[in-house]
Amino acid sequence: MSHHPSDPPDPGGAGRPGGAGPLDGVRVVELAGIGPGPFAAMLLADLGADVVRVDRPGPSPLGGDPAFDVTNRNKRSVLVDLKSPEGPATVRALAARAEILVEGYRPGVAERLGVGPEECTAVNPALVYGRMTGWGQGGPLAPLAGHDIGYIATAGALSMIGTSDGPPAVPVNLLGDYAGGSLYLTTGVLAALLTARATGRGQVVDAAIVDGTAHLTSMFWGMLAEGTWRDARGGNLLDGGCPYYGTYRTGDGGWMAVGALEPQFYALFVSLLGLDADDLPDRADPRNWAELRDRFAARFRSATRAEWTSVFEGTDACVAPVLSLREAAGHPHLTGRGTYTEAHGITQPAPAPRFSATPGTLRLPPAAPGAHTPDVARDWDVPELLKDHR
Questions:
Q1: Cβ distance 344 to 13 under 8 Å?
Q2: Among candidates 83, 75, 131, which has minimal Cα distance to 103?
Q3: Would you call 31 helix, strand, or coil by DSSP?
Q4: E-assigned strand segments in 193-321
Q5: pLDDT in tens, 47-75
Q6: Can 177 be counted among the known catalytic residues?
Q7: How far apart are CA 372 and CA 94, in angstroms?
Q8: Catalytic position from the list 10, 46, 69, 177
Q9: What is the spatial distance between Cα 202 and Cα 284, in angstroms, rounded to a whole number?
Q10: Catalytic residue among 147, 252, 333, 381
Q11: Percent of the chain with pLDDT over 90
Q12: pLDDT tens-place string over residues 78-96
C-alpha cells in the first residue's frame, strides 16, 4: 500500500516501529479461547496493551492457520498446559504481574483449573478479572453450551431483524459475540481498571452476551413503552419495514441501502431516484409504505448498482451501495481514511477508534502459539514459563 506525502497518516501504523497506544504499559493475560474473548483482547492490544495469550499445547480448537487469525494480532503467545502440575501456578505468576486477566470458559472451569478469580486475586488483589460467557456466571442457563445465534435469540434482538414475512436474518456473529460480548467486556475491564488504580482493589467483570445484547436494545424498549415500536420485525422505522430505510435490488442483481429518514434527505432521494414527490403518497402514513416500496423498487430495478451509485454518491440523499468485504476495502472513502490497511501480508481493519496523541498501531502479526514464551518470561519476570515450556 503506497502512500504519498499528502496522504493522511496510516492509522494502522503498520509501517511504524514500536508505537505506544493509550493502553501502553497495561499488562493483560488472555486465557486462550474462541470468539468474543480473543476479539476483546485484540482491541486492548490494538490500543497498546501488552497482551499475553496463554495457549494450550496442541491444535487450535477451530483449526486453521494461526498466521491468518487477525484477532490474535498485536499479542504475544506463551504455551502453558493448564492440566500439568505446574500449569496453574504459571498462570497465577502471570496474573501476579498483570492488571487485567480475560477468560472465556464456562462458569466454574477456571476455578477447577486453579486459575479462577479467588486464586488469581490472592496473588494480585488489584487484578481486574474479566469473564466472557454467553449466558453469564449465574442464571438457569449458565452451565449450558451456546453460540451467538442462540444468545441474541434469547435476548430478543434476533426477532427484530428480517422481513415480516420471512425468517429472522442472521447477522453473522457481529451482534452477539462482538457487539454484545467483546465490546462490553472491554468497556467493563477498562472501567474496573480505573477503579483498581484508584483503590488498589480489583474486581470480577461478568460480561454475558445476553446482557450486552439486551443492553444494545435500550432505545427500542423506550419506543415500545411510548407505543412507537411494534414488537414484530419488518414493520418499523429502522427494521426494514419503512420504505425509505431499507435495501433495494438493482437491475444487475446488486443492492442499494437507503436511509433517507429526515424530510430534506427524503426529498433529495426521491428527486434523484427520478420520481415526482407530488405524485407519491404521504410517507408518514405506514398504510402507504407498501406502495412507496413498490415504486422505489421499480426505479432501482431500472439501472445497475454502479449507475445508481454514481447518481447518489456525493449527495445528502443517504443512499449507498451494499459492498462486499473486498469491495469495502477498496472504497475511496475508506482508503482515504485508512480504515482498512494491509499489515503483515493481510488486508484487515485498522485499529479503532482513533486517538490524536496516542494512536493504536499494528505492531505484531497474529501470534503463533508459544512463539513468545522466552520473551515474555524475560519481560514479565516469570521464569516459571520456561520450566513449563515444552
A1: no
A2: 131
A3: strand
A4: 204-208, 245-249, 255-259, 319-321
A5: 999 999 999 998 776 678 999 999 999 99
A6: yes
A7: 14
A8: 177
A9: 52
A10: 147
A11: 91
A12: 999 999 999 999 999 999 9
